[in-house]
Specification:
Its EC number is 3.1.3.25. The chain is of the alpha+beta class. Helix content is 32%, strand content 29%. The strands form 3 sheets. Strands 3-4-5-6-7-8-9 form a 7-stranded mixed β-sheet, with helices on both faces. The protein has a 5-stranded mixed β-sheet with strand order 11-10-12-14-13, covered by helices on one side. Strands 1-2 form a two-stranded antiparallel sheet. The protein binds adenosine-2'-monophosphate and calcium ion.
């Protein structure tokens, strides 16, 4: 029977292969479809990568389950061995900028996250680990979270969230040296892990935050919704990745 370590090695291979495929096809003519609104897009390559990753996982591990963004597989994470897939995180960047998009994969057993992967495709940086595995970017260990003051660092948040001041997120953002927004939740969470950002917050789905929550946990971060609770891992939510040591201070600014 496959061990978790076997699955982790397999996961690194299929995520790097998916990224390699996307790099090869970066300048192909894209078929683009609109999903929930004009800015929520999917291309034929999102779908191809979703299908390919799903098929590879299910042929290697036929009893496992899939929770994917771009197909009908939506297994709840609480039960069984569940792989959470976002084939392209930052599809708008993929279409318009040809950079700053990621392949995301996370693995859960009965709701417990055992490893996560965030692959920055054009920079060839694979953030991976969690659970029993150290958290690395490629082969380099990432640092434990810092309790640096908000006033000495940056928050990742998009303009729409600041404009809405949803749950006081704009008030919270004003405590930082500045805001940054790159249009990929996965990469923004990865930038918290490297400490380019102190915090990242966005309105996202489980496939956008699953890997980051597992990677972050191992380094002293916590991924919470804006009520300070663990997110549901079912629908879209406002979530924050932040050092555990800074959660109480954050709550002073959120309502
Ligand atoms: P996606 O590219 O996988 O959809 C900025 O748009 C970030 O928010 C991206 O990480 C994007 O992920 C995510 N996001 C989640 N839901 C979205 C939606 N309905 N429309 C646009 N972006 C969404
Ligand atoms: Ca996506």
């Amino acid at each position: 029977m496959a061990t978790v370590a076997d699955k982790y090695t397999f996961a690194q291979k299929i995520v790097r292969d998916a990224g390699g495929f996307l790099r090869q096809h970066l300048y192909d003519e894209l078929t683009v479809e609109v999903k929930s609104n004009f800015a929520d897009l999917v291309t034929h390559l999102d779908k191809e990568v979703q299908t390919s990753m799903t098929q590879q996982i299910l042929s290697a591990f036929p009893d496992d389950l899939i929770f994917g963004e771009e197909d009908e597989n939506r297994a709840p994470i609480e039960k069984g061995n569940v792989w959470v897939i976002d084939p392209i995180d930052g599809t708008v960047n993929f279409i318009v900028q040809k950079t700053d998009f990621a392949v995301l994969l996370a693995y859960f057993e009965d709701g417990v996250g055992l490893f996560g992967l965030i692959y920055d495709v054009t920079n060839d940086l694979l953030y991976h680990g969690g659970g029993e595995f150290p958290v690395l970017v490629n082969d380099e260990q990432l640092p434990f979270s810092t309790d640096k003051a908000f006033s000495q660092g940056l928050i990742g948040i998009n303009a729409g969230l600041v404009e809405q001041n949803y749950a006081g997120l704009a008030n919270f953002s004003r405590q930082f040296l500045g805001t940054r927004s790159i249009g990929s939740a996965g990469l923004s969470f990865a930038h918290v892990l490297t400490q380019r950002l102190l915090v990242h917050t966005s309105y996202v789905y489980p496939w956008d935050y699953a890997a980051a929550s597992i990677l972050g946990q191992k380094l002293g971060y916590v991924l919470l919704n804006v009520n300070g609770e663990k997110p549901s891992f079912t629908g879209r939510e406002h979530v924050v990745l932040i050092a555990k040591s800074k959660v109480n201070e954050m709550k002073r600014y959120l309502q």
